[in-house]
Design goal:
Blueprint lengths: L33 H4 L33 H27 L6 H23 L16 H20 L4 H7 L2 H26 L29 H17 L3 H29 L1 H9 L9
Helix pairs in contact: 2-3, 3-6, 6-7, 7-8, 8-9
Length: 298
């Protein structure tokens, strides 16, 4: 039964109907309400004490503006990347509808903004500890990276505006549709592979080469890592070349291929020296049965 009431189903010792009226208290400031009448001593309503004002939650200094995990910095970057991606898709659709060859430029910006957003989002979802402002890779890749993206845009715009009558341009234009399809497929495969690699590796993935093994560091050999030894490098290599194919860039395609091959060749060599040191024979066996997926890198 509810604690506010006695069980009235039994007969009392005094022979009454099951309850005995209690005398009113002599304290004029307290009423003997029905709810209070038969409360046990421990169930009596206690007078409300003045509560202290709620304390403000503590702030993580890393989340403050200008810090490595600045919430304002992260939200602003995510918002701007979303806007660039959306405007790029709309411009691409409009320029395609009006049969303008420069549709490739806003399409490239959509690809680029989606890539940088996913770099952060996947890190935040599967490797939260490293979800910093720099995880967007907007500036942490260095000036050379940003100049390379700008060069790709400049070549596309220059070619379409000033060299559209050249023999080479007309020759490539005849293959434009097929090359565009191939380029889009390359970017799709590259982006998907890199995103899956980051998600599957989880806390074992890092944008920087690790020179010391942590206690939680494990050698990931399942999922996509069962087939590719460095799937995130594979993904970016083919994504970047596919983007140049979509843009119709000849010079940048060759330059990207050479620069990226050199970069990943050196990086993989350096990284695997540490991995052999971390995991020994286990990594040597793993390396023998998997590939990289980038030409001439074993």
């Amino acid at each position: 039964m509810d604690g506010s009431f006695e069980d009235h189903h039994h007969q009392s010792n005094s022979g009454s109907f099951g309850w005995t009226p209690r005398p009113l208290t002599n304290d004029p400031g307290i009423t003997d309400s029905p709810n209070d009448r038969d409360l046990p001593p421990t169930s009596k309503a206690e007078p409300k004490s003045l509560s202290s004002p709620p304390t403000r939650p503590s702030l993580d200094s890393d989340s403050l503006p200008g810090a490595r995990k600045s919430l304002s910095g992260i939200s602003l970057r995510a918002f701007l990347l979303g806007q660039v991606c959306s405007v790029g898709v709309l411009l691409t659709a409009y320029l395609l509808y009006t049969q303008q060859p420069l549709w490739r430029v806003p399409f490239f910006f959509s690809l680029l903004s989606l890539f940088h957003f996913l770099e952060f989002w996947i890190t935040a979802r599967f490797n939260t500890r490293y979800a910093t402002v720099s995880a967007f890779l907007l500036s942490s890749n260095g000036t050379a990276y940003n100049l390379a993206q700008l060069s790709a845009v400049v070549e596309c715009v220059t070619t379409n505006l000033f060299f559209h009558d050249s023999v080479w341009f007309k020759f490539s234009a005849s293959w434009s549709i097929w090359l565009t399809v191939v380029g889009i497929m390359m970017t799709a495969v590259g982006q998907t592979t890199r995103s899956l690699a980051m998600a599957h590796a989880g806390t074992n993935f890092n944008h920087r080469v690790q020179t010391k093994r942590s206690d939680e560091h494990q050698l990931v050999k399942t999922g996509i890592y069962a087939y590719l030894r460095h799937p995130s490098y594979f993904g970016f290599f083919w994504w970047a070349l596919g983007a140049q194919v979509v843009l119709g860039n000849k010079i940048c395609f060759v330059a990207y291929a050479l620069v990226l091959w050199k970069f990943f060749s050196d990086r993989i060599k350096k990284e695997e020296e540490f991995l052999v040191r971390f995991f020994g024979q286990e990594y040597l066996d793993y390396r023998r049965r998997t590939g990289v997926g980038i030409p001439f890198i074993k």
